[in-house]
Amino acid sequence: MKVNKWIIIIIIILLIIIIAAIFFFTDVFKKSEKVVLGSKLFNEQYILAHMIAHLMRDNGLQTEVKESLGGTMINYEALKKGNIDAYVEYTGTAYNVILKLPPLDKWDPNEVYQKVEQGLMEQDNIAIAARLGFRDDYAIALHKDWVTENNVVRISDLEPYVDDLSLGTDPEFASRPDGLPQIDKVYGFTFGEVRQMQPTLMYEAIKNNQVDAIGAYTTDSRVDLYNLSIVEDDKGALPPYDAVIIVRKEFMENEELMKIFKMLEDQIDTDTMRGLNKLYDIDKKEASDIAKEYLIEKGFITP
Predict the structure, then answer these.
(1) DSSP character for 186?
(2) CB atoms within 10 A of CB 15
(3) Average pLDDT estimate for 38-47
(4) First-to-last CA distance in the chain?
(5) Strand ranges (E), the chain
(6) What gap in Å lies between CA 292 and CA 169, rounded to an integer?
(7) Looking at the DSSP assignment, which residues form a beta bridge with residue 214?
(8) pLDDT in tens, 50-75
(9) How far, in Å, CA of 128 to CA of 145, rounded?
C-alpha cells in the first residue's frame, strides 16, 4: 500500500511539472511569435502600422512591419492567407472594393460600419479589432479665401457657382460610381469643367490656380499647406472611410493582442491624422519616429 501511495504521489508531482512546463513554454512561444503588420502605399498607412508595432513591442511582442506591401486587395488577401496578421483598412473601401455592396442613397457612417463588420466576418472570417476615430474621406476642397468670401460651407452652397468652377480630380474619383458621379446624382449639378490628373498634379493645379476645386482627401496635409478648405458633404453623397484595424477571426480570441489593438480605439481624429501626415510629407520625418513620438505623448508607451 505504501509503495502504491508513493507512486501516486510521484505521478501527481510529474503531472504538475508537465502542466507547468506546458504553460511556461506556451507563454514563451507566444512571446516569441512575430506579429506581422501590412500597410498600403501611402503616408498614414506607414505611420499607423508602426504605431501598432510600437505598442506591441512595448508589451513584449515581436513585430514586423511590411511597409508598402501593396494596395487594398494585396493586403486583404495576405491577411486572409495568414501572410500578415493585421492592417488598417477603411470602411468605404471594404464596402465598395472588398464586399462590392451596392451604393447607398445616403451614406450613413454607422450603417456602413455595421454592414462592413458583418460582411467581412460572414464572407472571410475577418474581424474589426478597433475603430481608430478618424475618416480619410474623399472631399471637395477649394481655396479658403474664396470659400470665406462666398460664404460656402457645404457642397450644396456651391450650386450658384458650380457652372463656372473647374474641378481637378484623380481618375478613380472621377469615374467611380460612389465618387464624382454620385455627387452629380445627389446634388443635381455638375462642375463646369472636370480635369482628371494624378493627385500630386491635382494639388499643384489648385495651388497655381489652374483649377478652382479638387477632389481632396480629408487627412492629406496638403489641404493645410495650400490653405484649402474642405466643404461639408451635407447630403451624404460620398462614402465614409472610417479607419479600422482588421484581423482574422482567431485573433479575436487572443485577449493580449485585442487589448493592444483596443488601445487605439477612438484615439486619432481627422485633424490629428492630418498633422501626423504633415510630419511625414512636409517635415520628412520617418514614419516609425512619428508613430513612437505620438504614442509617448499620449502616454501609451514609455520613452
Answers:
(1) H
(2) 10
(3) 93
(4) 62
(5) 34-38, 62-66, 86-90, 126-135, 138-143, 166-169, 193-196, 213-217, 228-231, 242-248
(6) 34
(7) 141, 168
(8) 999 999 999 999 999 999 898 889 99
(9) 40
CB 248 within 8 A of CB 79: yes
Residue pair 97/90 in contact (Cβ under 8 Å)? The answer is no
Return the SS3 of 17.
helix
- Is 280 in contact with 48 (CB distance < 8 Å)? no
CB atoms within 10 A of CB 167: 25
Q: Is this prediction's pTM over 0.85?
A: no
Q: Is 90 helix (H, G, I), strand (E, B) or coil?
A: strand
Grid coordinates given for 178: 460612389
Smallest CA-to-CA distance from 126 within 113, 136, 116 is with 116
For residues 143, 149, 155 and 156, what is the CA-based torsion angle, rounded to 10 degrees? -160
3-state secondary structure of 35: strand
User: Could you give the angle at the alpha carbon of 10 between the alpha carbons of 8 and 14, nearest 5°?
Assistant: 115
User: Which string of DSSP letters, residue by residue, matches 242-295?
Assistant: EEEEEEEGGGGG-HHHHHHHHTTTT---HHHHHHHHHHHHTS---HHHHHHHHH
